[in-house]
Amino acid sequence: TVAASSAAPALCDADGWAPTPQAFSLLAQAGFPIEPLVCVSSAEEAAAAAEHMGFPVVLKAERPGLVHKSDQGAVRLGLADRDSVARAFTDFSHRLGPGPALLQRQAKPGLELVIGGRRDPSFGPIVLAGLGGVWIEAFNDIGVRLAPIDIDEAVRMVEKLKGRRLFEGFRGAPPIDILMFARLLADVSQWFAAASWLDELDINPLIASGDGFEIVDVRMRIR
Ligand code: ADP
Ligand code: MG
Questions:
Q1: What is the C-alpha to C-alpha distance for residues 158 and 143, in angstroms, rounded to an integer?
Q2: If we measure between CA atoms, which residue out of 190, 181, 17 comes closest to residue 114?
């Protein structure tokens, strides 16, 4: 079981997208495995925070209305020292205008998964899950169920994915625990179904490795 959803976040942009730090903290409060993030507002602050966090880090520009960050060159992966972090921050400011950035540890490589939630006008809450990255785009490899689902249903959902074999060992990496993923999926479906203030949830991606799961990106649209 998961903690009851809190009230609707107050600060959203015109389309209702919650600021990224707020979306992360809502998931953290509910007990989901987020990769922590720090908001920084200058190149110097970014470099210092990265040093404190430990390299390698990822820097992401945060701007109102910027939702597909990598398409805009607003995600920089694998930054390995203070200078690269400071330069990445400055580059965001030049290209995207002034604004803050979010800093995260770089997650261990693994299988990228997605979990989503929608509210259908006639069916009500729906949960989606599948493989991220090229698998979504090329194979449309996503399962959909009415939410909430229990763990057995979540296991069935995962076993039906075309890319299911990738759970068995990815690029020589240890296998990913399907039962653990199914438990997380069921918990997210339960949390989303109860969060009636939330219109849309996109956990994309969740990085799965032999060690567990790390949510590195989430978007939430408030009703
Ligand atoms: P967007 O979806 O807005 O383009 P993301 O935050 O999802 O931005 O970042 C784009 C991609 O970068 C992710 O799909 C993932 O492959 C990678 N990525 C993002 N954050 C991390 C992280 N902390 N560790 C490892 N890889 C990451
Ligand atoms: Mg993403």
A1: 8
A2: 181
Check if 104 has its Cβ closer than 6 Å to any atom of ligand 1.
yes
The whole-angstrom separation of Cα 133 and Cα 145 is 21
ipTM greater than 0.90: yes
Torsion sign (Cα): 21, 13, 204, 77:
negative
Of the candidate ranges 10-24, 152-166, 176-190, the one whose mean pLDDT is the lowest? 10-24
- What are the structural domains, with CATH classification, of the chain? 20-33+109-222 (3.30.470.20), 37-105 (3.30.1490.20)
Average confidence score pLDDT of the chain: 92
43 Cα–ligand 2 center, Å: 23
| Whether residue 107 has its Cβ less than 6 Å from ligand 1 | yes
